[in-house]
Amino acid sequence: MTQSNQTRRRLEAVAGAPDSRSRPATILLLVAALAMLGIHFMQLATFSLPSGQFRNFHLGFAIVIGFLTLIEQTDIALRARRIAFWGLAALTVALMAYIHIEYQALTQVRSFLPNPQDMAVGVLLLLTALILSGFQWGWTIPAMALIGIAYGLWGYLIPGEIFFHAGIAPKRLLGYTSIPYFQGLLGGLTSLSAGTIFMFMLFGGALKATGAIDFIVQLGFSVGRKSRAGPALVAVISSGLMGTVSGSTVANVASTGALTIPLMKRYGFKGEFAGAVEAVASTGGQLMPPVMGLAAFLIVGMTGLPYNSIMLAAIAPALIYYAYLMFSVHLRAISLDLDARDSDILESTQSLGQAARAQWHLAVSIAVLVWLLVTGMPAGSAAMISVLLLLGLDVVVTVTRGRFSRDAIREAVARVVNGLVEGARAGAMVATVIAVIGVLIELLTVTGFAQKLSFAMLDLSDGSLFTLSIIVAVSCLVFGLGLPTSASYFIVALFGAPALVETGVPLLAAHMFVFYFANLSAVSPPVAVAALVGANIAKASFWGTSFNAVRLALPGFLLPFLFLFEPEILGLGAGFGAQMLAVSQALIATAALNCALEGRIFQRISVIERGALALAALGLLYWDPRIELVSLAVIAALAGWSGIRARAAKRNIA
Predict the structure, then answer these.
(1) Residues 153, 170: contact at Cβ < 8 Å?
(2) What is the pLDDT of residues 601-648, one digit of tens each?
(3) Separation between Cα atoms, residue 433 and residue 137, nearest integer Å
(4) What DSSP state is assigned to residue 136?
(5) Of the candidates 235, 266, 340, 359, which lies 20 to 30 Å from 474 by C-alpha distance?
């Protein structure tokens, strides 16, 4: 290999594009990513830029990086497409420069009277964002944004109380999409993306570059080989932890599933079950603190609540979700008479202690992030400090292990740059789609449609919180068909959460309800994109995989109702003792439900016992103390009777 090729390969690896089809695009992307990072670090440290200018730089660089990424991925034979992407990237730079230069005039002189140049810039910025988000995320979200714009212009022509509005003049409508109001593309959601979400995406990129993926998989293997469930427990642990790093359920299923699903099948689990385990574990990664999914950060933007309060509220439900999943795979392993402790399928892995010693700095940086969030530091600043700490420790570890050699120093620098660029790529991709969603949300709000729909939901439910909760849950699952979790959450949270709050539900509980169902749309038929990817890897039936996924994710469908009727499970309106009591009830109920579905407690149970156990489990989740006490007694009696029979059977065998 020539020196030139070696340099090119090294550059592409550092820039996170080992298969780049355009070296100029990769070089410019590296420069743009570092420039974007510099602006964000400077702003979070000094707050020297006005908010509107910072949002402009954030979105502008995100779009430029997005088009450069598309150029890298486009085959050289598609010359017209590559030229178009180059032109759109250059146009975005010009638009960003115009808004920056004209910022004072836009906000102080022409805030209500944009001139023709302002209108042209606003239209072009909207088009570039829509085109990029379409290529990156699919055309559903851009299409919905365009429908929202059309509704803003011509809604006065639509009959009916819910859909009709007085209409919005074109100049005013343009202001709501970007400039000169700095709403929509440059509004509050983009501010949240710039100040918080981008830093967490950067943290995820730094974790990937410094070996977190290998460490997480190794951690799963180390624990899995000590359990009967073996590879299934590996999938639960590694995919759950990976979900907090990758930020994408589908990407997580595709990456870790390629390893865990064949392993589960080889061990003895059916393909439908293996694919479902991976899909449900990856979906749960978006529910697990401290990072959680993108929609968790959007709760901050919708409610104004600090991220640390959202993170703390999410801990108990996430632990219940994963406890149920771990118990599910354990019961299935017992039913199939599998035991990984007697198998050599995971024998070649290193111990948990060895894995922890090799990657201790990853654990330290995550622990610091959690501590900073819990102590009340703004989420973006906490993430920035954790990123710098992680990369600094990684440099120390890499250079020390390499005995301060030139190659070790070069590797350390490359890992730092790769982590930063990887995070900038992910953050830029998220920033674009959030900006487009911001346009839709802005127009649904200013036309009054969201408020009208919220009132319509209240009328339809006739004041019943339970009926309203069913309507909102179904809305989440329907809007989640084919949409990213963030878009599904935002659309339903706009009208569903206010309706729940009107009935007396705490604000955070209402948004957590929507948040859970928006995430679980990834495993809900008929689309169930996470289950679909899992089924493809497992070479199994989609419907069988998706129904298994619904069963394995059952707590995710039940817990949100407890958020509304027993919000103490989130730590709301009650002390620690009351929260622990609610958590204990949920753990016992979900374990009992698991046993009923599997048909086993300490041994096989009859159909009648399964039915009684399932009813008692649901009763324990009901918000009436008398029903809960009776249900608990039934569960205890059935478990005790099963244990007595199991011991008697063992004595007979002996």
Answers:
(1) yes
(2) 888 899 999 999 999 999 998 878 889 899 999 999 999 999 899 888
(3) 7
(4) H
(5) 235
